[in-house]
């Protein structure tokens, strides 16, 4: 099953939106701490609406903890520094899609440990998309390729 991992997220509404995405598509969401905000359901309520109770959330105290728990699974990092377009990448059913911090992306430690990196091609001069939008685009492609949508198409 495709899963999402948020590396030290900074913005609670983005986490809420991604938790809602995970709930709707039956995709578990890992949060790798520390987060850049005080953790509370109230922080996510507006973006997550009433979907939060349906989301599968797994919290990890550090990137090392996350790697230990998910050992043997392929980590695919969404990055503006990648060379492979996400639509050209061959996703596998048990991939974990790693999303960096909204303010600074993923550090070199993460870039060095992931199994693959993918990029969303954008118009020249644009830096990046909102992390929740980027996550949704790539999750959709991964689920399409692996026939992982939770309903028959």
Instruction: Note the gap between the termini.
Output: 17 Å
If helices are DSSP runs of H or I spanning 4 or more residues, what is the number of helices? 5
Rough outline: globular
The low-confidence parts are: none
Mean pLDDT over the residues: 91
For the biggest sheet, the summary is:
7 strands, parallel
Strand order of the largest sheet: 3-2-1-6-4-7-5
Helix content: 25-40%
What's the total number of strands?
Answer: 7
Order of helices and strands: EHEHEHEEEHEH
User: How much of the residues is beta strand, in percent?
Assistant: 15-25%
Distinctive features:
single chain; 153 residues; alpha/beta; 7-stranded parallel beta sheet; 5 helices
Describe this entry's structure for a reader.
With about 150 residues, the protein is of the alpha/beta class. The protein is about 35% helix and about 20% strand. The chain contains five helices and seven strands, in the order βαβαβαβββαβα. It has a seven-stranded parallel β-sheet. It is globular and about 35 Å long.
Brief overview:
The protein is 33% helix and 18% strand. It is an alpha/beta fold and 153 residues long.
Itemize the secondary structure elements and their pairings:
Elements: E1 3-7, H1 12-25, E2 29-32, H2 41-48, E3 57-60, H3 63-69, E4 75-78, E5 84-85, E6 96-99, H4 108-113, E7 116-119, H5 131-146
Parallel strand pairs: 1-2, 1-6, 2-3, 4-6, 4-7, 5-7
């Amino acid at each position: 099953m495709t899963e999402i991992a948020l590396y030290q997220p900074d913005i609670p509404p983005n986490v809420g939106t991604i938790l809602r995405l995970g709930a709707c598509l039956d995709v578990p969401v890992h949060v790798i701490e520390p987060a850049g905000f005080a953790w509370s359901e109230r922080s996510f309520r507006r973006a997550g609406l009433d979907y939060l109770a349906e989301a599968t959330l797994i919290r990890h105290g550090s990137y090392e903890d996350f790697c230990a728990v998910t050992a043997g699974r392929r980590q695919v990092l969404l990055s503006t520094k990648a060379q492979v377009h996400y639509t050209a990448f061959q996703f596998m059913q048990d991939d974990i899609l790693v999303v960096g911090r909204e303010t600074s992306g993923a550090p070199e430690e993460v870039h060095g440990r992931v199994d693959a990196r993918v990029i969303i091609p954008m118009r020249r001069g644009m830096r990046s998309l909102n992390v929740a939008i980027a996550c949704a685009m790539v999750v959709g492609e991964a689920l399409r390729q692996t026939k992982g949508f939770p309903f028959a198409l």
